[in-house]
Amino acid sequence: MSHTLPTPPVAERKPKTTPIHNTELVDDYAWLREKGAPEVTAYLEAENAYTAAAMEDTTALQAQLYDEILSHIKEDDVSVPYRDGEWIYLSRTAKGSQYPIFLRRPASTPDAPEEVILDVNALAEGQPFMSLGAIGVSPDGNLLAYTTDNTGFRQYTLHIRNLTTKTEFPDTAERVGSIAWAASSTTLFFTTEDDQTKRQDQLHRLNIGQPPVLVFTEPDERFNLGVGRTSDRKYILLDSGSHTTNEIHILESATPEDAFRLFAPRVDDEEYHVDHRDGYFYIHTNHQAELFRLMRVPIGFEDADQRAFWEEVLPKSKDAPLQDFDLFQNFLVTNYREAGLPVLRVFALTPDGTLGASNDIRFPDPAYAASGDVNRDFNTTVYRYNYQSLVRPASIFEYDTLTHTSTLLKQQEVPGGFDASLYNSERLWFPATDGTKIPISLIYRREVPGQAAFHKDSTRPLYLYGYGSYGYPLPLGFSVSRLSLLDRGIVIAYAHIRGGGELGDPWHDAGKMMVKRNTFTDFIDATEFLTSNGYGDPTRVAIEGGSAGGLLMGAVLNIAAEQGKPNLFRAVLSHVPFVDVMNTMLDASLPLTVAEYEEWGNPNEPEAFAYMRSYSPYDNLDKLSPGAIPSMLVKTSLNDSQVMYWEPAKYVAKLRTLKTNATPLLLHINMDAGHGGASGRYDYLKEIAFDYAFLLRELGIEPSQT
């Protein structure tokens, strides 16, 4: 598709100098931080107008892609019902409605009509954005607590609804994070955030009809609070955690006026998570076990240095990280990662709580996602889990722990039909530059109408996605929108680079702090491995990442150019990118900054400053080859609280002063959303169609092929 670009907007240079560590940081575009200032708003609107003009020739393609993706979505749909107490709960989506509707019916009367407990569409009326945060029904089923955000800034307001009268209580609170009901159903615990740093730092107790009471404050700026309940609902758990360390306080749910008790004091670089059954706390921990193990301790060792009393239930594995566990009265389910992929292992529990025989729930595809689903009945003998893969729609199964068999309850319906045999997924491992073996998951269509059948001949376009931070493993689920790329012959790959969590904490540790550059070089190595082995045309490689993955996008462009490979990537899609590493991490007043020192390093320390500066995309744009900058679409949201809009805005403004070639450099700002983009499902599909139209055009896929 040929297209003529209009003249892009030019941001005024207003240098701001920050002296630090015997050097200076010069920022020409710091003025873009002045959110709401007329000149800032005018510049952002000019960028949006430029992007709209530059994408005008794809308008018909965007509409086609939107209709195509929507045609594969069942707009009228219903979730798998689940029982909680005396009620059966479910949710529905209705054709034409942006948001779900939450319903329930009495468990004792299967034919009783469903009653609406919360219609998010009604909450969204008159709002450009609506996000539902925490939601929880009281144990007696009479009250609903929920939180909403109508800006995208992830700043949630608490609401409490009487489910009998369908009226709202006056009880409310601002900046609420997590919630947990006490056994009485008249007491709710909730956490709130600091109004500047957005750190969840306080716990409150609300007795309905009375003012809330502050019961706990976390003073350490690295730590965030979260409140929840044990699976048997006998204890309230208050978790205070940083990126590397945590501690838990406990309280009997039946006595909410009592003080919380410390379960085990925090120890640097140690994590533990607990659940309860019959007088024992079961503990998932990396205490003396880098890949985690399962332990337990009887009630009564709180407030002591009780780790000495912890009894091992499951030893640490040599090479399979124990991700988490689900505890029930009669069985326990662990989630291991073997070769980076989940395995669910079900153990019978003896009356005294020790482990009996085990059975594995394993899966047929080479790359997939599997995890526990909604399991609210502590005394059940069945376990619900979710399974999906790159070639298999999302499915809910129920595993019978007595017969060791799984039953499919629901599989995502794909209107128009989906034939998995048309596609192939693979799991590959390749050696990085330093010899470390890195996994890649990929999917492609075997035969595309009008094209030759796939074989490793490097003729198809390649799309590579990456993240590689916070120990987060890339999800390998099914996507109907992805079909629009696959059916046009694009090979899609996911690089499980260091810094992620596919292989446990050691994998994360090998791509953070002072070895963060491993994340970036792994991604470059992954690109070259795929193209050199025939999985994609080396002249038609598109890459995508968001947030910390947006940092990845910026860093790999700079580093590849520095390595003498300025043409490695043809198109880049960067969502809410964390690209201004130095200015952000030097500003402790910004949300999340201090807690992030454990992921990136503290730039107030000279050695960390020098290392972080060596890869910060905004600070290294001069390493790019000005005449070989790929096509780029950079997207952000005005109300993003995780990566402020000005980071991508400054990045694009500076990059424009350097590039000399004619490839498009586009910045799109959603003026009514936050970190995740549009909140409504139809609006979000339009954003995907916009992205895909950009990728298809820049990869040279002609209209006749779409």
The CATH class name of the largest domain reads: Alpha Beta
Q: How many distinct domains?
A: 2
CATH architecture grouping of the largest domain: 3-Layer(aba) Sandwich
Ranges where pLDDT stays below 50 over 5 or more residues in a row are none
Number of helical runs?
A: 12
Nearest-integer average pLDDT: 95
Largest sheet: 8 strands, mixed
CATH topology of the largest domain: Rossmann fold
Straight-line distance between termini: 12 Å
What fraction, in percent, of the residue positions are helical?
Answer: 10-25%
Compute the CA-based radius of gyration. 26 Å
Q: Identify the overall geometry.
A: globular
Helix and strand layout, with pairings?
Blueprint lengths: L15 E5 L2 E5 L10 H17 L4 H13 L5 E2 L3 E3 L2 E7 L7 E6 L8 E5 H5 L6 E7 L5 E7 L7 E6 L4 E2 L7 E6 L5 E7 L6 E8 L5 E5 L6 E6 L5 E7 L4 E7 L8 E4 L7 E6 L2 E6 L7 E6 L12 E4 L7 E6 L3 E8 L2 E9 L5 E7 L6 E5 L9 E8 L2 E9 L4 E7 L11 E9 L5 E9 L16 E4 L17 H4 L4 E5 L9 H5 L7 H16 L8 E6 L1 H15 L8 E5 L5 H5 L11 H4 L5 H10 L15 E7 L8 H11 L8 E6 L10 H18 L8
Parallel strand pairs: 34-35, 34-36, 36-37, 37-38, 38-39
Antiparallel strand pairs: 1-2, 3-5, 4-5, 5-6, 6-7, 8-9, 9-10, 10-11, 12-13, 13-14, 14-15, 16-17, 17-18, 18-19, 20-21, 21-22, 22-23, 24-25, 25-26, 26-27, 28-29, 29-30, 30-31, 32-33, 33-35
Helix pairs in contact: 2-12, 6-7
